[in-house]
Amino acid sequence: PTVFADQRVRQAMTMLTDRERIGKEILMGYGIIPSGPFNRLSKQHDSSVEAYPYDEAGALSLLSEAEVADRDGDGVLETPDGKPFRFKHTYPAGGGATGFWDRVSLFLKDSYARVGIVLEPDPLEWAVFKEKLQTRTFDAISLAWGGGLETDIRQMFHSSQIADGANNFTNYANPELDRLIDGARRTVVEDKRMPLWQTCHRILHEDQPYTFLYSRMSLIFIDHRIQNVQRIRIGLNDRTEWY
């Protein structure tokens, strides 16, 4: 277990992350703040769940409840066991011409430093990054998932996906969420299935096993000579994923 094992710390980290600025300044306005893992246009999404706001004071209050505080006055918070609150942020190196993840990591570093949390950017080549992911040898890690209008989240959050290098990378386990995921996967009738997914949404919002950074919008140009392009709720007829 690490300091992130405490739900209050995870909530605080999300509240210390100015996701609106990431959307505006790094994604150039083409980012939407998500409140959970589901597409906001999907019936899985519970529209009553509001994304955590950027709130330094609220975050510091939660950290204090979790016994995370600057006890020696050096400007760096200490975890309950007395160690400095310091962690590596691991992400894929490169990120294209814009160096997207480099920019995000430096932004987070500056944001967290203001309250006494030390983030060390840890960019890795993909092969090394993937090894860290599979072996769980990281403090905090960033990656992306794609999904459609109905997304099966068992792969990411069910406790059965912790062992043997499966894709529950954060080792998150919640028996109630497991039960709901299993129930939703067995339920054929949509009107009975969607409330189960919506309850999953509420649980994941409360537990914050991830800080859901953004949902990326796509900017697509179509030549006027191309005919029969249909616009649907999630974009165009050749786009089925929401990142």
Q: Order of strands across the widest beta sheet?
A: 3-2-4
Instruction: Look at the helices and sheets and give the structural class.
Output: alpha/beta
Query: Globular, elongated, flat, extended or rod-shaped: what is the shape?
Result: globular
Rg on CA atoms, Å:
19 Å
Distance between the termini: 29 Å
Q: Any low-confidence stretches, pLDDT <50, length ≥5?
A: 239-243
Kindly estimate the percentage of residues that lie in beta strands according to DSSP. 5-15%
Mean pLDDT score, rounded?
91
Task: Give me the strand/helix succession.
Answer: HHEHEHEHEHHHEEE
Percent of residues in helices: 25-40%
The number of helices is: 8
List its salient traits:
single chain, 10% strand, three-stranded parallel beta sheet, 35% helix, two-stranded antiparallel sheet, disordered C terminus, 243 residues, alpha/beta
Give a summary of the structure in a few sentences:
With 243 residues, the chain is α/β, with parallel strands linked by helices. Helix content is 35%, strand content 10%.
Describe the 3D structure:
The chain is α/β, with parallel strands linked by helices and 243 residues long. It is 35% helix and 10% strand. The strands form three sheets. The protein has a three-stranded parallel β-sheet. A two-stranded antiparallel ribbon has the order 1-5. A two-stranded antiparallel ribbon has the order 6-7. Helix 4 (100-113) links the parallel strand 2 and strand 3 (118-124). Helix 1 (7-15) packs antiparallel against helix 3 (56-65) and helix 7 (175-186) runs antiparallel to helix 8. The longest helix has 18 residues, at 190-207. The model is unreliable at 239-243 (pLDDT under 50).
